[in-house]
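forwarding from the other thread:

> can someone predict this with adenosine-5'-diphosphate?

sure thing
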Amino acid sequence: MTAVPVTEDAVPPAGNPLVVLENVNKHFGALHVLQDIDLTIGRGEVVVVIGPSGSGKSTLCRAINRLEAIDSGRIAIDGKPLPAEGRELARLRADVGMVFQSFNLFAHKTVLQNVTLGQIRVRKSEKNAAEQRARDLLDRVGVGSQADKYPAQLSGGQQQRVAIARALAMNPKVMLFDEPTSALDPEMINEVLEVMRQLAQEGMTMVVVTHEMGFARSAANRVVFMADGRIVEQATPEQFFSNPRSDRAKDFLSKIL
Ligand code: ADP
Ligand code: MG
């Protein structure tokens, strides 16, 4: 399969990109799960990654956050190359906020503790300052009144908004979202997407794996379509949804739209 070159108006802003992947390859045994991935994400850019199940979207996110090691190629975050180790890796992870499909909150900690823990341990914030920041962020995502509850006492949509607040508390340079609404009941999807839209409007650099095509259309600067471990097509949402060029993308869109 030949990759379709990115078109003029889907090219990220030139100069000083925030996330750069060059010729990245990753195998799981015989499975070549990331194949020659080249991807540059500009500051403030919102990139939505879509594609069939098993195409390597989660592995891509995990590689950017160094939750998966890559076999070859280069990844750099804000000019700093991976792999980082030890303290440097902890700092890098703090620069890259991640929100997963499953909410991943610490079950035995309160909502407030969930949002202060990383600030205190990794960012070395004072407890009072961390709590103030946590409360501000919880207010911002609409769950300020839940601060003293435990995750299990919250709805899925509330938990996912706490997870977003927790990631933001680290003051990340880029936020990765891996199907953040896929595990939610339908009536809770919008409250999470709304928080993400807000973040995008505020200029956060975001990589979002999602099946929510409405979000892709309205919030993405660029759509990256993956299949079989490759980036098959990149385009603006307008181009991608109205005029997909690859057969794989046409086939994918015909099944979901
Ligand atoms: P997507 O997120 O697009 O559905 P993934 O990145 O999760 O795809 O997975 C891509 C492929 O890699 C799938 O075939 C999946 O089964 C496989 N895979 C993912 N993680 C592992 C792992 N830890 N070990 C072996 N195979 C894996
Ligand atoms: Mg996935």
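Residues 17-255 form a domain with the Rossmann fold fold (CATH 3.40.50.300). thats all i got for now
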